[in-house]
Amino acid sequence: MEAELKKKYCNVTRHVIDLYLALCEQWQLKKKTPKRGLVVRPVLSHYMNSRCQVDLIDMQSEPNGYYRFIKNYYVYLTKFTMLCPLKSKTPEEVAYQLMDIFCMFGAPFILQSDNGREFENKIILNLADMWPGMKLVLGKPRHSQSQ
Q1: How confident is the model at residue 23 (pLDDT cuts 50, 70, 90)?
Q2: Distance in angstroms (rounded) separating the CA atoms of residues 55 and 48
Q3: Cβ neighbours of residue 57 under 8 Å, at least 6 residues apart?
Q4: Could you report the per-residue pLDDT of 108-131, keeping only the tens digit for each?
Protein backbone atom coordinates (compact mmCIF):
# COMPACT_ATOMS: atom_id res chain seq x y z
CA MET A 1 0.00 0.00 0.00
CA GLU A 2 2.84 2.35 0.83
CA ALA A 3 4.46 1.82 -2.60
CA GLU A 4 1.19 2.52 -4.46
CA LEU A 5 0.59 5.71 -2.49
CA LYS A 6 4.09 6.99 -3.30
CA LYS A 7 3.32 6.68 -7.03
CA LYS A 8 0.38 9.11 -6.82
CA TYR A 9 0.96 11.17 -3.66
CA CYS A 10 3.88 12.63 -1.76
CA ASN A 11 4.53 13.14 1.96
CA VAL A 12 2.27 10.26 3.10
CA THR A 13 3.96 8.83 6.17
CA ARG A 14 3.73 5.34 7.57
CA HIS A 15 1.98 6.74 10.65
CA VAL A 16 -0.83 8.14 8.48
CA ILE A 17 -1.21 4.81 6.66
CA ASP A 18 -1.43 2.91 9.97
CA LEU A 19 -4.00 5.38 11.27
CA TYR A 20 -6.11 4.94 8.12
CA LEU A 21 -5.96 1.16 8.37
CA ALA A 22 -6.94 1.25 12.04
CA LEU A 23 -10.08 3.30 11.21
CA CYS A 24 -11.07 1.56 7.94
CA GLU A 25 -13.96 -0.89 8.47
CA GLN A 26 -13.28 -2.87 5.30
CA TRP A 27 -9.65 -3.41 6.30
CA GLN A 28 -10.75 -4.57 9.77
CA LEU A 29 -13.11 -7.13 8.22
CA LYS A 30 -10.41 -8.45 5.87
CA LYS A 31 -7.75 -8.67 8.57
CA LYS A 32 -7.16 -12.26 9.59
CA THR A 33 -7.52 -13.15 13.22
CA PRO A 34 -4.94 -15.53 14.58
CA LYS A 35 -6.40 -18.99 15.18
CA ARG A 36 -6.11 -20.40 18.61
CA GLY A 37 -4.72 -23.87 18.84
CA LEU A 38 -5.85 -26.62 21.16
CA VAL A 39 -4.75 -25.77 24.68
CA VAL A 40 -3.29 -28.80 26.43
CA ARG A 41 -2.74 -28.60 30.13
CA PRO A 42 0.45 -30.38 31.12
CA VAL A 43 0.37 -33.11 33.74
CA LEU A 44 2.23 -31.66 36.70
CA SER A 45 3.92 -33.58 39.47
CA HIS A 46 6.04 -31.96 42.15
CA TYR A 47 7.58 -34.92 43.94
CA MET A 48 8.78 -38.44 43.20
CA ASN A 49 6.08 -41.07 42.68
CA SER A 50 3.27 -38.56 42.70
CA ARG A 51 2.02 -39.70 39.28
CA CYS A 52 3.09 -42.64 37.13
CA GLN A 53 1.72 -44.21 33.99
CA VAL A 54 1.66 -47.84 32.89
CA ASP A 55 0.76 -49.19 29.48
CA LEU A 56 1.23 -52.34 27.43
CA ILE A 57 2.76 -52.29 23.95
CA ASP A 58 1.61 -55.08 21.65
CA MET A 59 4.54 -56.68 19.80
CA GLN A 60 2.72 -59.80 18.55
CA SER A 61 3.56 -58.99 14.94
CA GLU A 62 7.29 -59.11 15.80
CA PRO A 63 7.68 -61.28 18.93
CA ASN A 64 11.06 -61.92 20.52
CA GLY A 65 10.94 -65.58 21.41
CA TYR A 66 8.13 -66.08 23.91
CA TYR A 67 7.82 -62.39 24.71
CA ARG A 68 4.91 -60.76 22.90
CA PHE A 69 4.25 -57.62 24.96
CA ILE A 70 6.26 -54.80 26.54
CA LYS A 71 5.11 -53.13 29.74
CA ASN A 72 6.01 -49.43 29.79
CA TYR A 73 6.18 -47.81 33.25
CA TYR A 74 6.68 -44.02 33.14
CA VAL A 75 7.32 -41.57 36.02
CA TYR A 76 6.14 -38.06 35.12
CA LEU A 77 8.47 -36.04 37.34
CA THR A 78 11.77 -37.56 36.24
CA LYS A 79 10.60 -38.94 32.87
CA PHE A 80 12.09 -42.26 33.99
CA THR A 81 10.87 -45.15 31.84
CA MET A 82 11.11 -48.81 32.72
CA LEU A 83 10.38 -51.41 30.06
CA CYS A 84 9.65 -55.03 30.96
CA PRO A 85 9.03 -57.88 28.49
CA LEU A 86 5.88 -59.95 29.02
CA LYS A 87 4.91 -63.32 27.58
CA SER A 88 1.20 -62.51 27.83
CA LYS A 89 -0.92 -59.67 29.11
CA THR A 90 -2.69 -61.63 31.80
CA PRO A 91 -3.52 -59.64 34.93
CA GLU A 92 -1.37 -61.99 37.03
CA GLU A 93 1.76 -61.31 34.99
CA VAL A 94 1.11 -57.56 34.84
CA ALA A 95 0.52 -57.46 38.62
CA TYR A 96 3.72 -59.41 39.24
CA GLN A 97 5.76 -56.93 37.18
CA LEU A 98 4.09 -53.95 38.88
CA MET A 99 4.76 -55.48 42.31
CA ASP A 100 8.44 -55.78 41.36
CA ILE A 101 8.58 -52.06 40.45
CA PHE A 102 6.65 -51.00 43.56
CA CYS A 103 9.03 -52.95 45.81
CA MET A 104 12.00 -51.31 44.10
CA PHE A 105 10.84 -47.66 43.91
CA GLY A 106 7.69 -47.52 46.02
CA ALA A 107 4.10 -47.26 44.88
CA PRO A 108 2.97 -44.02 43.22
CA PHE A 109 0.16 -41.90 44.63
CA ILE A 110 -1.60 -41.97 41.24
CA LEU A 111 -1.12 -44.85 38.81
CA GLN A 112 -2.60 -43.99 35.44
CA SER A 113 -3.38 -46.65 32.84
CA ASP A 114 -5.56 -47.14 29.81
CA ASN A 115 -8.90 -48.96 29.85
CA GLY A 116 -7.37 -52.36 29.11
CA ARG A 117 -8.96 -55.40 30.75
CA GLU A 118 -5.66 -56.32 32.37
CA PHE A 119 -5.81 -53.12 34.46
CA GLU A 120 -9.50 -53.37 35.37
CA ASN A 121 -9.12 -56.88 36.74
CA LYS A 122 -9.65 -57.82 40.37
CA ILE A 123 -5.97 -58.77 40.80
CA ILE A 124 -4.77 -55.27 39.85
CA LEU A 125 -7.41 -53.72 42.11
CA ASN A 126 -6.20 -55.94 44.98
CA LEU A 127 -2.67 -54.77 44.23
CA ALA A 128 -3.90 -51.19 44.56
CA ASP A 129 -5.51 -52.08 47.90
CA MET A 130 -2.12 -53.22 49.23
CA TRP A 131 -0.97 -49.59 49.10
CA PRO A 132 -3.80 -47.52 50.64
CA GLY A 133 -2.38 -44.20 49.40
CA MET A 134 -2.32 -45.29 45.75
CA LYS A 135 -5.15 -44.31 43.45
CA LEU A 136 -5.68 -46.22 40.19
CA VAL A 137 -6.92 -43.99 37.36
CA LEU A 138 -8.28 -45.74 34.30
CA GLY A 139 -8.50 -43.73 31.10
CA LYS A 140 -6.55 -42.91 27.99
CA PRO A 141 -3.04 -41.74 28.92
CA ARG A 142 -2.46 -38.03 28.18
CA HIS A 143 -6.17 -37.55 27.40
CA SER A 144 -7.64 -35.27 30.06
CA GLN A 145 -11.23 -35.53 28.77
CA SER A 146 -11.42 -39.22 29.72
CA GLN A 147 -10.26 -38.60 33.30
Answers
A1: confident
A2: 19
A3: 69, 70, 71, 72
A4: 998 888 877 777 788 888 888 888
Inter-residue contact 91 to 56 (CB < 8 Å): no
Q: Which residues contact 123 (CB under 8 A, 6 or more apart)?
A: 91, 92, 95
Domains and CATH numbers, the chain: 1-33 (no CATH), 51-146 (3.30.420.10)
Amino acid at 71: K
Q: How many CB atoms lie within 10 A of CB 132?
A: 8
Asked whether the beta carbons of 99 and 124 are under 8 A apart, the reply is no
| Bridge partners, 113 (sequence order) | 54, 138
Closest CA to 50 of 85, 78, 26: 78
Alpha-carbon gap, residue 147 to 112, rounded angstroms: 10
Gap between the Cα atoms of 147 and 135, Å rounded? 13
State pTM to two decimals: 0.64
